[in-house]
Design goal:
By secondary structure, this protein is mostly helical. The chain has 4 domains: 29-194, no CATH class; 203-304, no CATH class; 309-452, Orthogonal Bundle (Tetracycline Repressor, domain 2); 460-652, Methane Monooxygenase Hydroxylase, Chain G, domain 1, CATH 1.20.58.1970. It has helices at 29-37, 72-77, 81-97, 105-131, 141-162, 177-194, 210-231, 243-265, 269-287, 290-293, 307-341, 357-376, 379-383, 389-405, 411-431, 438-472, 482-494, 503-526, 534-558, 564-577, 581-594, 600-607, 615-635, 640-645; strands at residues 348-349, 352-353. Strands 1-2 form a two-stranded antiparallel sheet. A hairpin with a 2-residue loop joins strand 1 and strand 2 (352-353). Helix 3 (81-97) runs parallel beside helix 5 (141-162), helix 7 (210-231) packs antiparallel against helix 8 and helix 21 (581-594) packs parallel to helix 23 (615-635). The longest helix has 35 residues, at 307-341. The radius of gyration is 44 Å and the shape is elongated.
Length: 655
């Protein structure tokens, strides 16, 4: 056997196989041990050729000679495994690679048998030390470090013998201690997860099925053992060994196998949820602890369960959650209907009618989706729980429609209370967009808008009925402003009938009231007298400008926040004042951009108030409007944001 260089840069000491690891998919745990245990060889002491001329320059290393005061047995008892290994390697080299005439055949065989037994004894002691390495207090860090060094020496000796062409070699070579070491670690992890001993910090808190108790126990053991690896075992292995990730791979795969068996068994809904939480929440949280995450690459480990097992568990969980959500929301709506049927007056808070219907539904939706996102580790899947929300809201709308159609004494208060619910729903859809897919959110907003419109119409209808005679008078002598003054006085008086709404709902209702009155005002303007010359048109401009200010002041006082309605009236007033065609075209272009629901009929009706504005000019202006509306239709996307920001005025102005 030839002496080979002991340089750390030599690759000849690594194990000569590239088989895929049984534990890790990233280079393999065996690959890691090859880099650790097979990277360097013991220093060598060249020996001269013997008298027969045989090459003795290949004698295995005899450096690190143990002190003669210590025998192999003493070193073994001291748990100095590296030194004990060196004693045996030196003896092995002498017996097999050097001719010693003092040995008789019987003595030679006896010495070999003794050495074989000692080697077996050393190997057992090393592997026992490895097996106990995760038991705090049973193995000292010094003993484990020495065992690791001994394994490396044994691997180097195996490698050296693999290069030796000589026929005679020890029966125990190769010892394959590297492979045995891996098997011991895997067996040790399996045994520890099958028989966990880690104590629960609060045993009284442990509840659930036997499956949950078993998984919790394995999880605690995994957590404690990985902590031991990071804090203690890691220091006994060379850094390049990456022992933390080696152990993490073993624990991950063994734990995963145990969970697969549980998942394949068939689980009830609670156990199904529990297993999903372990896969997607609890287990990742363990690996993300600062003490572990610094040394373990959790992202490389992947999921504990394969997609083939996760998918049916997720479907089972999803079905159960959606069923529970539908049941609960159905009960909430049923309770609201029951209170209505029995004639129960809605409760009040600070003088406002309110309902808990929306709160209960929002809580279950928010809780369901938030929890599902954690359990499934996927927001898109979690959002799918809300796909039936539009259907549920449609049922809620049907209930509110029935309330509005009735003539019970509690109808008004009930409608006001449900406007509060509508507002709460709308806020959730806007502020917690992450809970809903875009389509679900848009459909739900549309239904809520319909419900709000119906409720506003019901509450405002009696008021508009009383104000109708005053609306009719807006078309006569309106330049003087007397009719508008009377109208505003009546509006302020009738608004008292609209009290009893929560603040936000009251603001919305006053906004609708503001819109309705503004539309009635423009109707009166269009149906009134025409203005023959620029002077009259200037007076009309001033009157509309004045009225817009008065309307804005009153409705702002009442709670409306629809400031844009003032702008509509001011732009109509500007059309009355302008005389030059290009200026009028520019103003109409702006109006078409701001209010895409304006039509050619609306513009034509306004311009007809200007008696001196020719039909040809009106045609030119309408063409300008047509162009801007076509351009707007081409560039506008129907996103939820666009829909939310669209303001309708002229579409309410029937001609």
């Amino acid at each position: 056997m030839r002496i080979r260089s002991g340089s750390a840069d030599s690759n000849s000491g690594t194990l000569g196989f590239n088989s895929q690891s049984e534990v890790s998919g990233r280079g393999g745990v065996r690959g890691r041990f090859r880099r650790l245990f097979g990277g360097n060889k013991s220093p060598t002491n060249p020996t001269p050729a013997n008298a027969n001329g045989n090459a003795t320059d290949g004698i295995l290393p005899t450096a690190e000679e143990p002190e003669e005061l210590y025998t192999f047995q003493e070193r073994l008892e001291q748990q100095c495994f590296s030194e004990a290994s060196q004693i045996l390697i030196n003896e092995e080299n002498k017996l097999f690679l050097q001719k010693n005439e003092s040995y008789s055949l019987q003595d030679y065989n006896t010495a070999i048998e003794k050495l074989q037994n000692q080697h077996q004894e050393l190997e057992e002691a090393i592997l026992k030390t490895i097996r106990l390495s995760l038991n705090p207090g049973e193995v000292s860090p010094e003993a484990l470090t020495s065992a690791v060094k001994a394994i490396r020496k044994e691997i180097d000796q195996d490698n050296a013998w693999m290069q030796e062409a000589q026929a005679e070699k020890p029966k125990w070579r190769p010892s394959k201690l590297e492979t045995k070491h891996e098997k011991v670690l895997k067996f040790m992890v399996e045994e520890r997860l099958d028989n966990p001993t880690a104590q629960c910090s609060s045993p009284e808190a442990v509840q659930g099925s036997s499956i949950q108790a078993d998984v919790l126990a394995m999880g605690r053991q995994l957590k404690e053992d990985l902590k031991t690896v990071v804090e203690t075992v890691r220091r006994c292995y060379p850094e390049k060994m990456d022992i933390c990730n080696f152990y993490a791979n073993i624990f991950h795969n063994v734990f995963g196998v145990r969970l697969r068996k549980i998942a394949e068994f068939g689980l009830d809904d609670k156990d199904c949820t529990f297993i999903l939480r372990w896969v997607n929440e609890y287990y990742p949280q363990i690996l993300q602890k600062p003490a572990l995450s610094e040394h373990i690459r959790a992202a490389d480990l992947g999921k504990l369960l394969p997609p083939s097992l996760l998918q049916p568990l997720e479907e089972q969980y999803f079905t159960k959650q959606q069923s529970d959500m539908l049941t609960y929301i159905g009960e909430v709506l049923s309770e609201a209907k029951q209170k209505w049927t029995s004639g129960e007056m809605p409760k009040t808070e600070d003088g406002c009618f309110i309902s808990d219907t929306a709160i209960f539904i929002i809580e279950v939706v928010n809780g369901g989706v938030t929890s599902a996102e954690t359990v499934l580790a996927d927001r898109t899947k979690a959002q799918s729980l809300t796909t039936l929300l539009p259907e549920l809201l449609q049922s809620y709308k049907s209930f509110l429609d029935d309330v509005i159609k009735s003539s019970k004494p509690i109808t008004g208060p009930t409608v006001k209370a449900n406007l509060h619910c509508i507002e709460q729903f709308s806020n959730v859809l806007k502020r917690k967009r992450f809970l809903f897919p875009d389509e679900v959110r848009d459909q739900s907003q549309f239904i809520l808008k319909e419900m709000q419109t119906s409720a506003h119409s019901y509450l405002l209808k009696p008021v508009h009925t009383q104000l109708k005679p005053l609306y009719r008078k807006l078309s006569s002598d309106w330049l003087k402003g007397d009719n508008l003054k009377k109208l505003l006085e009546n509006i302020e008086s009738k608004s008292l009938d609209l009290q009893g709404l929560a603040r936000a709902s009251h603001q919305e209702l006053m906004g609708t009231f503001h819109l309705d009155v503004s539309v009635e005002y423009v109707k009166g303007l269009i149906n009134g007298d025409r203005f023959k010359d620029a002077k009259k048109q200037e007076q009309a401009h001033d009157a509309v400008h004045r009225d817009a200010q008065l309307l804005q002041q009153l409705f702002t006082k009442l709670g409306s926040q629809e400031d844009w309605l003032k702008d509509v009236l001011l732009r109509i007033a500007e059309l009355l004042r302008l005389q030059e065609l290009p200026a009028i075209q520019t103003e109409v272009f702006t109006m078409g951009t701001l209010y895409p629901d304006i039509s050619e009929k609306h513009v034509s009706a306004i311009l007809k108030l200007k008696s001196n504005f020719t039909k040809a000019n009106r045609r030119t202006v309408k063409e300008t409007l047509r162009d801007v509306l076509n351009e707007s239709a081409t560039t506008t996307t129907t996103t939820s944001t666009t829909l939310e920001n669209t303001r309708s005025f002229f579409s309410l102005l029937t001609l």
